[in-house]
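Continuing the batch. This is chain 6 of the set; chains 1 through 5 are on the previous pages. Same settings as before, nothing changed between runs. Recording input and output for traceability.
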Amino acid sequence: MPGPLPGIYDIMETRAKAVCSVQEIVTLVLDGKLTWKGRLAGRHDYMALMLDPEEVRRLVRREEGGGLTMIAAAAFIGMSAKSVKKFADAGNLQTVVEVNAVNRCPQTVVVRASAEAFKSTYVSLFEVAKRFDLHFLRAKTMLEEAGIVPVFDPEKFLTTVYDKSRIDAFDTSKIDSSLVDRNPPEEKLEPQATNAGPPAPEQTVASTDALALAGSPSHGGEAAELVHVPRVASASSKKALRKRETEMRVKAALAEAEDAARAAAMAYEANCERGPSGHPRGGFGFANVYVLGLDRSLWSAFREFGRIRRVEKGYWKIHRFSNLTNTGLVAFHDAACTAAAATLQKHFPNEGMFGAESYSD
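Output for chain 6:
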């Protein structure tokens, strides 16, 4: 052949693109398993051999293993990849080392049967909340009152997990129907009529200050009249609860987005074009996740956990995803940030517009 053809490369380029060794390519050539081989005209040296990397890739690619990656296991069980790794390290999930079918590198995966057994035995707090149609904090309190506690230490394993059999046996009639609404309206204090009878004892408390006031000389020195004050949650406690709920919601979304970003970067690395040395090709640069019109209720949590910075009015950058890859290639950063933005948009569909932008050097 007079010169290289499109999609045809020498043995070193083929090795990098097919993600295999030179020895494997030579074996394919000597065994006659390649349907296309070429040689540069006028040359008979080693580097004159021209091959189709796609054909080589198909022949050296191995069968997919039966295990689940940490991210796949996390999606299957219903928790973060970090929690899956914690359970695997503790021996609660069985793992094996398999060779990745695409990049042919060894990777630790979760045995599928082990993941299935774990899912059939345990259930996460969020799954419980979803089943009972409650906010997860209310579901947690309800279970604690029923004597149902997490099987594993939530701080150690970064998730709250319960015995599934105890949840299945839980008497759903104990659920207060007034708590089922996940976004209950704010309680309002209505003025009490002076001639109204006292509420039921369990719903009221006697205010000593009110009793003293009613019997004081400024009130004519009459006998003290019992005043019943409704027991209501203070505004500060409600505000603190809402803040805590928002923080946990944002933290969970950011953690899932970070897992998605890393998975996207790994997938890009496994299939990207590589040079003769085997290193990925591409320009250098960086990328960021941005958000437009972020709801005010989320600002504080995103500032603390997402390292969000204002660029201009209504436009913010989330710097948590800026350095998730070990390469300076802009394509890697862009893939990671795009996946992260899509995940955040899924969690906050009506509270901001998330996207990714990249900059090349």
